[in-house]
């Protein structure tokens, strides 16, 4: 009887270390609500939006909600409607709390698993695309239950290999 109780915690710890914390606490998919507005702050209904990351591509008509596969890569959103200039957005992927729990408590194995599955990352949950603009949306400044207004791509520092026009485009 004592052998069972001594080995059970060991077996549990080994099994727990082989799973990712965010894999358990987060779904591989995440809902992102997209709304479109004109430059003069009027809703633009019926814009066709395409969101894309390295895990797939999703379509919606704004205002609408898409279920995207989580990824460490940014989500690129392009919205178009006849009579309007296209609206573009780069939605920044950020590590969520499960990733940090993996690093602190799991010794890194869970972090690797969650990184590979994408469950370690989260996008802003509600974005507002402005037609005719290219914006950046970063979850670091997200306010719960409110649409996120993006920051103009020209206002953010660019990598030496990027330009403002390529920043909102999917990278091959």
From TrEMBL:
Annotated region (Disordered), positions in chain: 149-172
- First and last residue of the signal peptide: 1-22
- Give the compositionally biased regions (Polar residues): 157-172
Write the record's keywords in alphabetical order, separated by commas.
Signal
| Name used for this protein in its record | Lipoprotein
Organism of origin is Novimethylophilus kurashikiensis
